[in-house]
Amino acid sequence: MELKGIHHVSAITASAKNNYHFYTNILGMRLVKKTVNQDDPSMYHLFYADEIGRPGTDLTFFEITNAGHTYPGNNSISYTSLRVASDKALHYWEERLDEYDIVHDGIGEKFGRKILPFQDHEGQRLVLVSDENNKGVAAGKVWDKSSVPKEYGITGLGPVRFTVPDLAPTKRILTEVLGFRHTGAYPNPEGQAEIQVFETGEGGTGAEVHIEVRPELQKERPGRGSVHHVAFRVADYQELEKWHNRITKERLPNSGLVDRYYFQSLYFREPNGILIELATDGPGFDTDEKVEHLGESIALPLFLEDKRNEIEANLLPLETKID
């Protein structure tokens, strides 16, 4: 068994409307699914991705309207990367972020790649990362109706960073349980211990976890602009069952197998408290909608369909249809 890379990252927003505007109109991602949190159907769950929502390209958001401010700290997923095709694309993005008065740190370099760290309107910590020299997991494809030129558009998810007080227990789960490989390290700009890099599958931009060790920090207090969990790619349901057996034998409390309709999942927390999901590549977002109309209407899994009227009545209208 081998995890294929990052599947998706799920974060928190306080406003689906403002979130939709930022990630589609400004970042140019496609809303491929407008649905609800299956565990709490009173809130939206929005999925932004490449042209068809390929695994490894999904950045998703739960709308929690009363979510407070995030106080960054330990035991967290402290940034999410978004892939672009080239170094040249980062120069385009630097100008675009300035145009929209978006907070950013300018173009820099990390682990041999050009990067552009920035924050969204709620303080979500994001990094644009260049695939100029990527030789690992292939990127997705930019939607032809994106608000950003195709050669500069976001093509998927790059490395996620964990911030933890102690490296050893998280490293053990990644390497001994999940099969990641330690591939190097790079300086921490905060002057702390070097950030450690782990990869899985074909490796490269779409298959890395970076771990920052900060024992002096307090535990993060999540809110709007924080990350809820990261998911890693599993080939199919049969392999997910094997992962469930392995996680259970490790005596890691877990969710058991969960049908998320667009993929099957397994959730567990590693010892530093970070929520990890393993998710299958299929069946995909075109299960209940045609590809050309993804994200235009509220999609519900079959087990919630009989509650559609009640669910829609409790959601604020969110116009997402593209002419």
How would you describe the oligomerization state of the chains in this entry? single chain
Q: Quick check: average pLDDT?
A: 97
Number of strands: 16
Low-confidence stretches: none
**CATH first level: which class?**
Alpha Beta
Strand numbers in spatial order across the main sheet: 2-3-4-1-13-16-15-14
Main β sheet profile: 8 strands, mixed
Shape: globular
Separation of termini? 43 Å
Stated plainly, the CATH topology is called 2,3-Dihydroxybiphenyl 1,2-Dioxygenase, domain 1
Assigned CATH architecture:
Roll
State the fourth-level CATH superfamily.
2,3-Dihydroxybiphenyl 1,2-Dioxygenase, domain 1
**Element order, helices and strands?**
EHEEEEHEEEEHEEEEHEEEHH
- Give Rg in angstroms: 19 Å
- Please count the helical segments: 6
Number of domains: 1
Commentary on this structure:
It is a single chain. Helix content is 18%, strand content 34%. Strand 10 and strand 11 form a beta hairpin. The radius of gyration is 19 Å and the shape is globular. It has 6 helices and 16 strands. The strands form 2 sheets. Strands 2-3-4-1-13-16-15-14 form an 8-stranded mixed β-sheet. Strands 6-7-8-5-9-12-11-10 form an 8-stranded mixed β-sheet, covered by helices on one side. The chain is α+β, with helices and mostly antiparallel strands. The chain has one domain: 2,3-Dihydroxybiphenyl 1,2-Dioxygenase, domain 1 (Roll), CATH 3.10.180.10. InterPro entries: Extradiol_RC_dioxygenase, Glyas_Bleomycin-R_OHBP_Dase, Glyas_Fos-R_dOase_dom, VOC_core. Keywords: Dioxygenase, Oxidoreductase. This is Ring-cleaving dioxygenase. GO terms for molecular function: dioxygenase activity.
